[in-house]
């Protein structure tokens, strides 16, 4: 019975904390809406474009080389991610801080998460290189062998989870409840992206793009 009450109380506290957090978020704020759109759009964009290139090689033909096409897409992804980070920062600054998070220990946890996230992102990039990081396999640019060293021996998707850790750290440093929600959105978008990358999805959309391309060429 005591355990049951304890679990009940803990569940009640969790619900209260969640309700309190949501009270500090303005869902109608334009900067919040822009940040959510940027978060969802980015992985959708690069997955659709990469699969379209894999099926048609239209980017490689346009740039005259799969390497140039991959670099172009990579730089576009970087710019989109910079804009996503900017839009999230703007949304965090526009909305209220939460006194529950506004503590020294939370601040330092945020710093630690950003250090960890940066380590995962940078080490992943160094291990894969530019084309390995930015979907080179869809352009026919394959690595000599599978990368199994750090950070891939820690997590299968270090670039994604390192980026998520950075955003979570930023939210904790800024004591930002909207930052927590946006970070959760980033994590969900990445989980969907991982499923996209590992399964045959969006085929109807890709077929549409392929057909449209062929019509334009004809």
Automatic annotation (TrEMBL):
Keywords: Endoplasmic reticulum, Lipid biosynthesis, Lipid metabolism, Membrane, Methyltransferase, Mitochondrion, Phospholipid biosynthesis, Phospholipid metabolism, S-adenosyl-L-methionine, Transferase, Transmembrane, Transmembrane helix. It is found in: Endoplasmic reticulum membrane; Mitochondrion membrane. Its main location: endoplasmic reticulum. GO terms for cellular component: endoplasmic reticulum membrane; mitochondrial membrane. InterPro entries: PEMT/MFAP, Phopholipid_MeTrfase. Residues 30-50 dip into the membrane without crossing it. Pathway: Phospholipid metabolism; phosphatidylcholine biosynthesis; Lipid metabolism. S-adenosyl-L-methionine binds at residues 115-117, 197-198. It is a multi-pass membrane protein. Its EC number is 2.1.1.17, 2.1.1.71. It catalyses: a 1,2-diacyl-sn-glycero-3-phosphoethanolamine + S-adenosyl-L-methionine = a 1,2-diacyl-sn-glycero-3-phospho-N-methylethanolamine + S-adenosyl-L-homocysteine + H(+); 1,2-di-(9Z,12Z,15Z-octadecatrienoyl)-sn-glycero-3-phospho-N-methylethanolamine + S-adenosyl-L-methionine = 1,2-di-(9Z,12Z,15Z-octadecatrienoyl)-sn-glycero-3-phospho-N,N-dimethylethanolamine + S-adenosyl-L-homocysteine + H(+); 1,2-di-(9Z,12Z-octadecadienoyl)-sn-glycero-3-phosphoethanolamine + S-adenosyl-L-methionine = 1,2-di-(9Z,12Z-octadecadienoyl)-sn-glycero-3-phospho-N-methylethanolamine + S-adenosyl-L-homocysteine + H(+); 1-hexadecanoyl-2-(4Z,7Z,10Z,13Z,16Z,19Z-docosahexaenoyl)-sn-glycero-3-phospho-N-methylethanolamine + S-adenosyl-L-methionine = 1-hexadecanoyl-2-(4Z,7Z,10Z,13Z,16Z,19Z-docosahexaenoyl)-sn-glycero-3-phospho-N,N-dimethylethanolamine + S-adenosyl-L-homocysteine + H(+). It comes from the Eukaryota. GO terms for biological process: methylation; phosphatidylcholine biosynthetic process. GO terms for molecular function: phosphatidyl-N-methylethanolamine N-methyltransferase activity; phosphatidylethanolamine N-methyltransferase activity. Residues 1-29, 51-62, 132-174 are lumenal. Residues 84-110, 196-218 are cytoplasmic. It is an enzyme of class 2 (transferase). The chain crosses the membrane at residues 26-46, 66-85, 106-130, 167-190. PANTHER family: PHOSPHATIDYLETHANOLAMINE N-METHYLTRANSFERASE. Belongs to the class VI-like SAM-binding methyltransferase superfamily. PEMT/PEM2 methyltransferase family. HAMAP family: PLMT (MF_03216). Catalyzes the three sequential steps of the methylation pathway for the biosynthesis of phosphatidylcholine, a critical and essential component for membrane structure. This is Phosphatidylethanolamine N-methyltransferase. It comes from Acanthochromis polyacanthus.
